[in-house]
Specification:
With about 550 residues, the protein is of the alpha/beta class. The chain has 15 helices and 26 strands. It has a nine-stranded mixed sheet with strand order 16-6-7-5-2-17-18-1-19, sandwiched between helices. Strands 20-21-22-23-26 form a five-stranded mixed sheet, sandwiched between helices. The protein has a four-stranded antiparallel sheet with strand order 9-10-14-13, with no helix packed on it.
Length: about 550
């Protein structure tokens, strides 16, 4: 069964992924670009909301964690990588780039360990650190196992302002673990110039004429055939038997006297696989702002890109690993193509988005989520140790959309929304409304927090507020919430507590906040259902 892991990918690789158990690795790690990336959620009306959450900070600093990663590489037994990294440190010093390279080197060593001998790795990067990463890859995999540098033209560049040449491409390094690796050639349609060579035959089938000879003076292939003999410096490219077979099939064009043309082998377009894909990929569009694929996740890559990589370097039933899986494009493509997969991410925000994406695209897919709380004690530990991750996790578990305004401390008293359908009796129609979520991960909760949420409801003109807490509420808190009274749906007549206190324990009792019919697509971009959505049952 495929698996989705929450946690640091280095720890997950060490503890959960066995030696030589993976057929293909794709990784799209942060590029050390010193940028913060936000997830952009759409509002109920479809526009980009001001609800945006920092997905990850693409900034690295040399500290204890980087020093530990450096030490791990030094003691790994891989002297090539250790010497490389030591030389990089002498050149760069203990700066942010060195922190990034130390962290990546430690992970690349483990990725090499889990890869099968016939496996491959694709590392997606940009010029910020690609020159250093190429050296690390040579050290880990061996320079002789470097296969290709793929250039992906990821966007149109005419609207981008820059002082130098406009950068419009990413780099993907392709390595194999050994001299024997899986590769299935990919093809693409012929271009306009190539298509000019094709013409219709009497039945309307498009064909082109290819040469029946080759440039070599092979005496055994310089015979006269049906009135045609190759010149002294050329020979027939096929045996007499094959030539006769083509002639009988009507595949050879004739001269006016009825003899075969040396440039007359008819090659039909519908029998050709297409043009082999090279290393410059300009035929796959990026995920733009108006793309149907767009889920709002920063640096999201198109499915077509991952489908090309996975179909080329793995076979059906193989295991694909993405240790930085983000919004899950690689695991989505793997599932679609009938592969098993392992995805790893360090944020519950990403894990929640991937779960949602896969269940929408493959409704009957079965996969295991490892690392999320399985019981009350696990959830309490998450709340105490990682309060922001707890906030993301529980907000999504109760059907909500996380919110934090792009940076810590800027949430305006709102940690998330639950969108629901609100009926308008006077207008005779319905619209989407939002219940406001406030999450308190700490043990110290009090009535002042309930009053604060009341103020938020008034300010936002919201009908329902949900106060989510780990600790049990006091009687005073419950009385204050009850004093907010009931909001009644004007059409159904059903009443809902205007201010609800929802505890962590209730989640594990299979309870949910009381709101009208959820509009689950109001704040999220829905993933397209795939035609082979039954595939998960086979894995």
């Amino acid at each position: 069964m495929s698996q989705l892991y929450y946690g640091d990918n280095l720890e997950v690789l060490r503890e959960h992924v066995a030696d030589e158990s993976v057929d293909l690795i794709y990784l799209d790690p942060p590029f050390n670009s010193n940028a913060n990336y936000n997830i952009l959620f759409k509002s109920p009306k479809g526009a980009a909301a001001d609800s945006q959450i920092e997905a990850f900070e693409d900034t690295w600093h040399y500290g204890p964690e980087a020093a530990q990663a450096f030490h791990e590489v030094m003691t790994s037994g891989n002297t090539d990588v250790a010497n490389l990294l030591r030389s990089m440190q002498e050149f760069l010093g203990q700066n942010d780039m060195m922190a990034y390279l130390a962290m990546m080197a430690a992970r690349l060593i483990h990725l090499h360990r889990v890869l099968k001998p016939t496996g491959s790795l694709y590392l997606h990067c940009d010029p910020t650190a690609s020159h250093y990463l190429k050296l690390l890859l040579d050290g880990v995999f061996g320079a002789s196992n470097f296969r290709n540098e793929i250039v992906w033209e990821r966007t149109n560049s005419h609207n981008m302002k820059t002082a130098g040449w406009t950068r419009s491409n990413d780099t993907i390094f392709f390595y194999s673990k050994s001299e024997s690796w899986v590769f299935n050639t990919r093809y693409q349609p012929y271009g306009p110039e190539q298509m000019k060579r094709y013409r219709p035959d009497a039945d309307g089938r498009l064909y082109k004429a290819e040469n029946l000879t080759f440039s070599s003076a092979n005496k055994s292939r310089q015979f006269e055939w049906r009135g045609t003999r190759p010149p002294p410096n050329r020979s027939w490219g096929a045996s007499l038997e094959q030539l006769e077979k083509w002639w009988a099939e009507g595949r050879i064009l004739k001269r006016q006297d009825g003899s075969p043309r040396m440039d007359g082998l008819k090659v039909y377009l519908d029998e050709m696989p297409g043009k082999p894909v090279g290393t410059n990929w300009a035929d796959i569009d990026r995920v733009g702002n108006t793309s149907g694929e767009r889920l709002g996740y920063p640096t999201q890559k198109p499915l077509a890109l991952l489908e090309r990589i996975i179909s080329a370097s793995s076979n059906e039933g193989d295991v694909v690993l993405d240790p930085f899986c983000g919004c899950g494009t690689a695991v989505h493509a793997a599932q679609k193509l009938g592969r098993q997969w392992i995805g790893i991410d360090v944020t519950y925000l990403a894990i929640g988005l991937i779960e949602r994406r896969l269940r929408e695209a493959f409704p009957r897919t079965r996969f295991e989520v490892v690392g999320e709380p399985k019981g009350l004690m696990d959830a309490e530990h998450l709340a105490a140790s990682e309060p922001y991750q707890f906030q993301y996790w529980i907000t999504q578990k109760i059907g909500g959309q996380p919110y934090r305004g792009g940076r810590k401390g800027a949430d305006r008293g709102i940690d998330g929304y639950i969108y629901y359908t609100k009926n308008d009796a006077a207008a005779g129609k319905s619209s989407t409304a939002a219940a406001i979520i406030s999450v308190k991960a700490g043990r110290n909760v009090g009535v002042a927090m309930i009053r604060e949420l009341k103020g938020v409801l008034e300010r936002e003109k919201a009908d329902i507020g949900i106060f989510v807490c780990v600790a049990n509420p006091s009687r005073e808190m419950e009385r204050e919430a009850a004093a907010a009274e009931i909001w009644t749906d004007p059409v159904t007549g059903i009443g809902y507590p205007r201010l609800q206190i929802f505890t962590l324990a209730e989640l594990f009792q299979n309870r949910q906040p009381s709101v009208p019919l959820l509009d689950r697509q109001a704040g999220y971009k829905r993933a397209k259902a795939e035609e082979n959505s039954e595939q998960g049952l086979l894995l």
